[in-house]
Amino acid sequence: MEHFQTRSSMKITPKVSRSQESAISSFFNESRIIQDWSIFNYEEIPGERKRLDLENEISEGVEAELEGSEEKEKDDDETEQDGDIEDSEKLDDITLNRSQLARSRANNLPELLLMGRCNVGKSSLINALLTNNRQNVKTYAKVRQRAGYTLCLNFYNIGGMFRIVDSPGYGQKGKQWQGELVFQYLQNRRVMRNCYLMLDSKVGLNQYDELIINNLVQLGVPFDVVFNKIDKIPNGHEIEHLENLIDNSILAELKIQPRYYFVNSVDTSKGIGYRSGISELRLGMIESCGLSVNRKSLRPVKRSREAEEKLKRRKLKNVKMIVNTPKD
Protein backbone atom coordinates (compact mmCIF):
# COMPACT_ATOMS: atom_id res chain seq x y z
CA MET A 1 0.00 0.00 0.00
CA GLU A 2 2.84 2.39 0.84
CA HIS A 3 4.19 1.78 -2.67
CA PHE A 4 1.02 3.31 -4.16
CA GLN A 5 0.80 6.15 -1.63
CA THR A 6 4.22 7.51 -2.51
CA ARG A 7 4.12 7.12 -6.29
CA SER A 8 0.52 7.66 -7.40
CA SER A 9 -1.69 10.74 -7.75
CA MET A 10 -4.84 8.68 -7.10
CA LYS A 11 -7.04 9.44 -4.07
CA ILE A 12 -5.59 6.91 -1.65
CA THR A 13 -6.26 6.69 2.06
CA PRO A 14 -3.43 8.23 4.15
CA LYS A 15 -0.72 6.00 5.55
CA VAL A 16 -1.58 4.43 8.90
CA SER A 17 0.51 5.87 11.73
CA ARG A 18 2.19 3.63 14.30
CA SER A 19 -0.27 4.62 17.02
CA GLN A 20 -3.22 3.95 14.70
CA GLU A 21 -1.73 0.61 13.65
CA SER A 22 -1.36 -0.39 17.30
CA ALA A 23 -4.94 0.63 18.15
CA ILE A 24 -6.40 -1.10 15.08
CA SER A 25 -4.49 -4.34 15.64
CA SER A 26 -5.49 -4.44 19.31
CA PHE A 27 -9.11 -3.81 18.38
CA PHE A 28 -9.33 -6.70 15.90
CA ASN A 29 -7.22 -9.00 18.09
CA GLU A 30 -9.45 -8.47 21.11
CA SER A 31 -12.86 -8.14 19.45
CA ARG A 32 -15.42 -10.89 19.74
CA ILE A 33 -16.29 -11.51 16.10
CA ILE A 34 -19.45 -13.48 15.43
CA GLN A 35 -21.78 -14.01 12.50
CA ASP A 36 -25.06 -12.49 13.64
CA TRP A 37 -27.31 -13.45 10.72
CA SER A 38 -27.48 -15.08 7.31
CA ILE A 39 -30.32 -13.32 5.48
CA PHE A 40 -32.08 -14.49 2.31
CA ASN A 41 -35.09 -12.15 2.66
CA TYR A 42 -34.49 -8.48 3.46
CA GLU A 43 -37.43 -8.15 5.83
CA GLU A 44 -36.01 -11.02 7.91
CA ILE A 45 -33.26 -8.71 9.21
CA PRO A 46 -34.15 -8.39 12.92
CA GLY A 47 -36.14 -5.21 13.55
CA GLU A 48 -36.25 -4.18 9.89
CA ARG A 49 -39.88 -5.15 9.22
CA LYS A 50 -40.99 -3.17 12.27
CA ARG A 51 -38.90 -0.17 11.21
CA LEU A 52 -40.41 -0.17 7.71
CA ASP A 53 -43.93 -0.41 9.19
CA LEU A 54 -43.22 2.51 11.55
CA GLU A 55 -41.93 4.65 8.69
CA ASN A 56 -45.08 3.89 6.69
CA GLU A 57 -47.29 4.77 9.67
CA ILE A 58 -45.45 8.06 10.17
CA SER A 59 -45.77 8.90 6.48
CA GLU A 60 -49.49 8.08 6.47
CA GLY A 61 -49.99 10.03 9.70
CA VAL A 62 -48.32 13.14 8.29
CA GLU A 63 -50.45 12.95 5.13
CA ALA A 64 -53.62 12.57 7.20
CA GLU A 65 -52.58 15.52 9.34
CA LEU A 66 -52.14 17.73 6.27
CA GLU A 67 -55.51 16.67 4.83
CA GLY A 68 -57.17 17.32 8.17
CA SER A 69 -55.73 20.83 8.40
CA GLU A 70 -57.16 21.72 4.98
CA GLU A 71 -60.64 20.41 5.84
CA LYS A 72 -60.62 22.09 9.23
CA GLU A 73 -60.77 25.57 7.67
CA LYS A 74 -64.14 24.70 6.13
CA ASP A 75 -65.75 23.35 9.30
CA ASP A 76 -67.83 25.32 11.82
CA ASP A 77 -66.61 26.05 15.36
CA GLU A 78 -68.03 22.87 16.93
CA THR A 79 -66.61 20.60 14.27
CA GLU A 80 -63.35 22.52 14.49
CA GLN A 81 -63.07 21.74 18.22
CA ASP A 82 -63.68 18.03 17.59
CA GLY A 83 -61.09 18.13 14.84
CA ASP A 84 -58.55 19.68 17.21
CA ILE A 85 -58.93 16.70 19.56
CA GLU A 86 -58.58 14.21 16.72
CA ASP A 87 -55.57 16.05 15.30
CA SER A 88 -53.96 16.08 18.73
CA GLU A 89 -54.43 12.32 19.03
CA LYS A 90 -52.94 11.81 15.57
CA LEU A 91 -49.93 13.95 16.48
CA ASP A 92 -49.46 11.89 19.65
CA ASP A 93 -49.46 8.71 17.56
CA ILE A 94 -46.95 10.18 15.11
CA THR A 95 -44.69 11.33 17.95
CA LEU A 96 -44.89 7.88 19.56
CA ASN A 97 -44.02 6.15 16.30
CA ARG A 98 -41.10 8.50 15.72
CA SER A 99 -39.86 7.81 19.23
CA GLN A 100 -40.09 4.04 18.66
CA LEU A 101 -38.29 4.43 15.33
CA ALA A 102 -35.48 6.41 16.96
CA ARG A 103 -35.04 3.72 19.62
CA SER A 104 -35.04 1.03 16.94
CA ARG A 105 -32.26 2.78 15.04
CA ALA A 106 -30.26 3.39 18.21
CA ASN A 107 -30.19 -0.34 18.85
CA ASN A 108 -28.64 -1.05 15.44
CA LEU A 109 -24.90 -1.04 14.83
CA PRO A 110 -23.38 0.82 11.85
CA GLU A 111 -22.85 -1.49 8.89
CA LEU A 112 -20.37 -1.68 6.02
CA LEU A 113 -21.37 -3.55 2.86
CA LEU A 114 -18.88 -5.45 0.70
CA MET A 115 -19.85 -5.89 -2.95
CA GLY A 116 -18.11 -7.45 -5.92
CA ARG A 117 -18.63 -9.76 -8.83
CA CYS A 118 -18.47 -13.52 -8.34
CA ASN A 119 -15.06 -14.90 -7.40
CA VAL A 120 -13.44 -11.48 -6.87
CA GLY A 121 -12.31 -12.55 -3.40
CA LYS A 122 -14.72 -10.92 -0.94
CA SER A 123 -14.72 -13.84 1.48
CA SER A 124 -10.91 -14.08 1.45
CA LEU A 125 -10.71 -10.35 2.14
CA ILE A 126 -13.13 -10.61 5.06
CA ASN A 127 -11.01 -13.36 6.60
CA ALA A 128 -7.88 -11.24 6.19
CA LEU A 129 -9.65 -8.25 7.79
CA LEU A 130 -10.88 -10.24 10.77
CA THR A 131 -7.76 -12.27 11.54
CA ASN A 132 -4.15 -11.42 12.22
CA ASN A 133 -2.34 -14.57 11.14
CA ARG A 134 -2.49 -16.93 8.20
CA GLN A 135 -3.27 -19.98 10.36
CA ASN A 136 -6.76 -18.57 11.08
CA VAL A 137 -7.34 -17.07 7.66
CA LYS A 138 -10.43 -19.25 6.93
CA THR A 139 -12.06 -18.87 10.31
CA TYR A 140 -15.05 -16.70 9.38
CA ALA A 141 -16.21 -16.45 5.75
CA LYS A 142 -16.34 -19.69 3.77
CA VAL A 143 -14.01 -19.75 0.77
CA ARG A 144 -14.29 -21.97 -2.30
CA GLN A 145 -12.69 -21.94 -5.74
CA ARG A 146 -16.03 -21.98 -7.53
CA ALA A 147 -17.85 -18.69 -8.06
CA GLY A 148 -21.10 -17.82 -6.32
CA TYR A 149 -20.43 -19.54 -3.01
CA THR A 150 -21.79 -16.65 -0.89
CA LEU A 151 -25.53 -17.17 -1.25
CA CYS A 152 -27.00 -14.43 0.92
CA LEU A 153 -26.20 -11.42 3.12
CA ASN A 154 -23.89 -12.50 5.94
CA PHE A 155 -23.63 -10.09 8.89
CA TYR A 156 -20.40 -10.18 10.94
CA ASN A 157 -20.54 -8.42 14.31
CA ILE A 158 -17.17 -6.82 15.10
CA GLY A 159 -16.81 -6.47 18.85
CA GLY A 160 -20.32 -5.08 19.29
CA MET A 161 -19.23 -1.84 17.57
CA PHE A 162 -20.11 -2.34 13.88
CA ARG A 163 -20.96 -5.01 11.32
CA ILE A 164 -19.32 -6.02 8.07
CA VAL A 165 -21.87 -7.38 5.59
CA ASP A 166 -20.75 -9.84 2.93
CA SER A 167 -23.03 -9.91 -0.12
CA PRO A 168 -23.56 -12.45 -2.94
CA GLY A 169 -21.40 -11.89 -5.99
CA TYR A 170 -23.00 -10.33 -9.04
CA GLY A 171 -22.43 -11.07 -12.72
CA GLN A 172 -23.07 -14.12 -14.89
CA LYS A 173 -23.02 -16.51 -11.92
CA GLY A 174 -25.29 -14.32 -9.79
CA LYS A 175 -29.03 -14.99 -9.42
CA GLN A 176 -31.84 -12.47 -9.86
CA TRP A 177 -33.19 -12.86 -6.32
CA GLN A 178 -29.71 -12.20 -4.93
CA GLY A 179 -29.46 -8.95 -6.87
CA GLU A 180 -32.91 -7.90 -5.63
CA LEU A 181 -31.89 -8.68 -2.05
CA VAL A 182 -28.76 -6.51 -2.25
CA PHE A 183 -30.70 -3.72 -4.01
CA GLN A 184 -33.29 -3.75 -1.20
CA TYR A 185 -30.49 -3.47 1.33
CA LEU A 186 -28.94 -0.51 -0.51
CA GLN A 187 -32.30 1.24 -0.79
CA ASN A 188 -33.60 0.73 2.73
CA ARG A 189 -30.86 -0.03 5.25
CA ARG A 190 -30.53 3.13 7.33
CA VAL A 191 -27.54 1.95 9.38
CA MET A 192 -25.32 1.32 6.36
CA ARG A 193 -22.43 3.79 6.56
CA ASN A 194 -20.41 2.86 3.48
CA CYS A 195 -20.17 0.39 0.63
CA TYR A 196 -16.87 -1.13 -0.48
CA LEU A 197 -16.85 -2.20 -4.12
CA MET A 198 -14.21 -4.86 -4.79
CA LEU A 199 -12.58 -5.02 -8.21
CA ASP A 200 -10.05 -7.42 -9.70
CA SER A 201 -6.77 -5.51 -10.07
CA LYS A 202 -5.59 -7.53 -13.05
CA VAL A 203 -8.84 -7.74 -15.02
CA GLY A 204 -10.28 -4.32 -14.17
CA LEU A 205 -13.93 -3.31 -14.60
CA ASN A 206 -16.50 -5.09 -16.71
CA GLN A 207 -20.08 -4.20 -17.70
CA TYR A 208 -21.48 -5.53 -14.42
CA ASP A 209 -19.09 -3.43 -12.34
CA GLU A 210 -20.02 -0.29 -14.26
CA LEU A 211 -23.74 -1.07 -13.88
CA ILE A 212 -23.30 -1.41 -10.11
CA ILE A 213 -21.40 1.89 -9.94
CA ASN A 214 -24.20 3.63 -11.85
CA ASN A 215 -26.76 2.19 -9.43
CA LEU A 216 -24.77 3.31 -6.39
CA VAL A 217 -24.50 6.84 -7.78
CA GLN A 218 -28.23 7.01 -8.61
CA LEU A 219 -29.16 5.77 -5.12
CA GLY A 220 -26.78 8.24 -3.50
CA VAL A 221 -24.94 5.43 -1.69
CA PRO A 222 -21.45 6.38 -0.47
CA PHE A 223 -18.83 3.93 -1.69
CA ASP A 224 -15.10 3.32 -1.93
CA VAL A 225 -13.20 1.05 -4.31
CA VAL A 226 -11.00 -1.86 -3.22
CA PHE A 227 -8.65 -3.26 -5.86
CA ASN A 228 -7.97 -6.84 -4.79
CA LYS A 229 -5.33 -9.33 -5.96
CA ILE A 230 -2.67 -6.69 -6.61
CA ASP A 231 -0.09 -9.49 -6.57
CA LYS A 232 -1.45 -10.56 -9.99
CA ILE A 233 -0.19 -7.38 -11.68
CA PRO A 234 3.22 -7.76 -13.42
CA ASN A 235 6.13 -6.46 -11.34
CA GLY A 236 7.13 -2.86 -11.94
CA HIS A 237 3.90 -1.91 -13.72
CA GLU A 238 1.45 -1.70 -10.81
CA ILE A 239 0.94 2.08 -10.79
CA GLU A 240 0.68 2.45 -14.56
CA HIS A 241 -1.68 -0.51 -14.86
CA LEU A 242 -4.09 0.66 -12.14
CA GLU A 243 -4.12 4.28 -13.30
CA ASN A 244 -4.99 3.10 -16.81
CA LEU A 245 -7.82 0.96 -15.42
CA ILE A 246 -9.30 3.96 -13.63
CA ASP A 247 -8.72 6.52 -16.41
CA ASN A 248 -10.38 4.30 -19.02
CA SER A 249 -13.44 3.41 -16.96
CA ILE A 250 -16.55 5.00 -15.49
CA LEU A 251 -14.53 5.77 -12.34
CA ALA A 252 -12.79 8.66 -14.11
CA GLU A 253 -16.18 10.28 -14.83
CA LEU A 254 -17.41 10.35 -11.22
CA LYS A 255 -17.93 13.87 -9.86
CA ILE A 256 -17.04 12.73 -6.35
CA GLN A 257 -14.04 10.42 -6.44
CA PRO A 258 -14.12 7.42 -4.08
CA ARG A 259 -11.14 6.44 -2.00
CA TYR A 260 -9.03 3.71 -3.54
CA TYR A 261 -7.59 0.79 -1.57
CA PHE A 262 -5.09 -1.72 -2.96
CA VAL A 263 -4.97 -5.02 -1.12
CA ASN A 264 -3.58 -8.52 -1.26
CA SER A 265 -5.49 -10.85 1.05
CA VAL A 266 -3.73 -14.13 0.24
CA ASP A 267 -0.23 -15.47 0.82
CA THR A 268 2.15 -15.00 -2.10
CA SER A 269 5.82 -15.32 -2.90
CA LYS A 270 5.75 -12.06 -4.85
CA GLY A 271 7.39 -8.89 -3.53
CA ILE A 272 4.04 -7.40 -2.53
CA GLY A 273 3.54 -8.57 1.03
CA TYR A 274 0.82 -10.81 2.38
CA ARG A 275 -2.03 -8.70 3.86
CA SER A 276 -0.80 -5.61 2.02
CA GLY A 277 -3.28 -2.74 2.40
CA ILE A 278 -5.30 -4.47 5.14
CA SER A 279 -4.40 -1.92 7.84
CA GLU A 280 -5.41 0.99 5.60
CA LEU A 281 -8.73 -0.64 4.77
CA ARG A 282 -9.39 -1.39 8.44
CA LEU A 283 -8.69 2.26 9.27
CA GLY A 284 -11.09 3.47 6.56
CA MET A 285 -13.83 1.14 7.77
CA ILE A 286 -13.51 2.22 11.40
CA GLU A 287 -13.59 5.91 10.42
CA SER A 288 -16.60 5.34 8.12
CA CYS A 289 -18.51 4.16 11.20
CA GLY A 290 -17.76 7.45 12.96
CA LEU A 291 -15.33 5.87 15.43
CA SER A 292 -12.09 7.45 16.62
CA VAL A 293 -8.99 5.35 16.05
CA ASN A 294 -7.50 5.19 19.53
CA ARG A 295 -7.50 2.68 22.36
CA LYS A 296 -9.85 4.76 24.53
CA SER A 297 -12.58 4.88 21.86
CA LEU A 298 -12.14 1.38 20.44
CA ARG A 299 -13.36 -0.66 23.38
CA PRO A 300 -15.01 -3.76 21.90
CA VAL A 301 -16.80 -6.69 23.43
CA LYS A 302 -13.84 -9.01 23.84
CA ARG A 303 -13.60 -12.46 22.38
CA SER A 304 -14.04 -15.50 24.56
CA ARG A 305 -13.62 -19.08 23.42
CA GLU A 306 -16.36 -20.22 25.76
CA ALA A 307 -18.77 -17.54 24.50
CA GLU A 308 -18.04 -18.36 20.84
CA GLU A 309 -18.66 -22.07 21.41
CA LYS A 310 -21.91 -21.26 23.19
CA LEU A 311 -23.04 -19.09 20.28
CA LYS A 312 -22.27 -21.85 17.77
CA ARG A 313 -24.41 -24.30 19.75
CA ARG A 314 -27.23 -21.75 19.99
CA LYS A 315 -27.16 -21.17 16.22
CA LEU A 316 -27.47 -24.88 15.55
CA LYS A 317 -30.55 -25.07 17.78
CA ASN A 318 -32.22 -21.83 16.66
CA VAL A 319 -33.40 -22.21 13.06
CA LYS A 320 -34.59 -18.59 12.99
CA MET A 321 -31.00 -17.34 12.91
CA ILE A 322 -30.66 -18.72 9.38
CA VAL A 323 -33.48 -18.09 6.92
CA ASN A 324 -34.21 -20.65 4.22
CA THR A 325 -32.90 -19.85 0.76
CA PRO A 326 -35.44 -19.15 -2.01
CA LYS A 327 -35.69 -21.66 -4.82
CA ASP A 328 -34.30 -20.71 -8.21
Largest β sheet strand count, sense and barrel closure: 7 strands, mixed
According to CATH, the homologous superfamily of the largest domain is P-loop containing nucleotide triphosphate hydrolases
Bulk shape: globular
Radius of gyration: 23 Å
Distance between the termini: 41 Å
Provide the CATH architecture of the largest domain: 3-Layer(aba) Sandwich
Provide the CATH top-level class of the largest domain: Alpha Beta
Extended strand count: 7
Helix content: 40-55%
Class by helix and strand content?
A: alpha/beta
Number of domains: 2
GO molecular function, one term: GTP binding
GO cellular component, one term: mitochondrion
Keywords: GTP-binding, Magnesium, Metal-binding, Nucleotide-binding
Protein name: DEKNAAC102598
Describe the structure.
- This protein is of the alpha/beta class and 328 residues long.
- The chain has ten helices and seven strands.
- It folds into two domains: 2-44 and 111-319, Rossmann fold; 48-106.
Could you give a short description of this structure?
One of its GO terms (molecular function) is GTP binding. The chain has 328 residues and is α/β, with parallel strands linked by helices. Helix content is 44%, strand content 13%.
